């Protein structure tokens, strides 16, 4: 298949992926399990994958050493956001949606404390969701994490394409080329939607700990 998805191909790939990873026989497979398919409550053609996992706080020093905070910005605790000072576990809603612009899967997520309040970006960077080295050399503002050498932010805030709710997402601009590089290693299966989706998760897992 091509480097980009049609809506039909995306739906098919997601269905195959969910079916293939329903059973868990190893810790590796467990990291890719738990996904389900959701449809828009009124409009067809806006389906997406969704799962909920539990996260933990990472020791602050492990991220602060790599992350540069924009000193001109104030991260204000207004009582509506969760704080890393809380020892409670965290709930992470994860979504795989079709990017309307780039026609590839895109990873969206939201993280909530035990009170149900969403985390601010500075606290999200202190959770176990992200690989420890993903923040190296980046700069965090209120609504994005960027790398000086990249044209687009690594991590941004935006609306979920189907739900319309605030989420964080990884910019999908380089997704197609990265997946194609992986699929070159297995030309025999590169045309299967499932192979494309599994290669995409391989790319995603370089930044996200798919626990």
TrEMBL record:
UniProt keyword Transport present: yes
Cell membrane as UniProt keyword: no
UniProt superkingdom: Eukaryota
UniProt GO MF annotations: Atg12 conjugating enzyme activity
UniProt-listed GO biological process terms: autophagosome assembly; autophagy of mitochondrion; protein modification by small protein conjugation; protein transport
GO cellular component, one term: cytosol
Keyword vocabulary terms for this entry: Autophagy, Protein transport, Transferase, Transport, Ubl conjugation pathway
Family (UniProt): Belongs to the ATG10 family.
Protein name: Ubiquitin-like-conjugating enzyme ATG10
Organism: Suillus subaureus
Origin organism lineage: Eukaryota, Fungi, Dikarya, Basidiomycota, Agaricomycotina
């Amino acid at each position: 298949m091509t480097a980009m998805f049609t809506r039909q191909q995306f739906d098919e790939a997601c269905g195959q992926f969910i079916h293939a990873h329903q059973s868990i026989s190893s810790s590796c497979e467990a990291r890719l399990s738990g996904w389900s398919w959701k449809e828009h409550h009124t409009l067809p053609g806006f389906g997406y994958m969704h799962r909920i996992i539990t996260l933990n706080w990472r020791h602050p020093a492990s991220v602060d050493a790599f992350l540069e905070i924009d000193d001109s910005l104030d991260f204000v605790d207004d009582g509506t956001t969760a704080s890393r000072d809380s020892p409670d576990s965290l709930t992470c809603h994860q979504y795989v949606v079709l990017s309307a612009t780039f026609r590839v899967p895109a990873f969206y997520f939201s993280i909530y404390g035990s009170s149900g309040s969403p985390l601010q970006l500075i606290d999200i960077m202190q959770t176990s969701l992200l690989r420890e080295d993903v923040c190296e050399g980046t700069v965090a503002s209120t609504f994005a994490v960027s790398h000086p050498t990249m044209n687009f932010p690594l991590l941004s805030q935006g609306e979920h394409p189907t739900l319309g709710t605030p989420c964080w997402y990884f910019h999908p601009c380089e997704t197609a080329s990265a997946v194609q590089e992986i699929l070159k290693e297995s030309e025999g299966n590169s045309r299967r939607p499932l192979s494309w989706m599994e290669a995409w998760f391989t790319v995603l897992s370089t930044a996200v700990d798919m626990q």
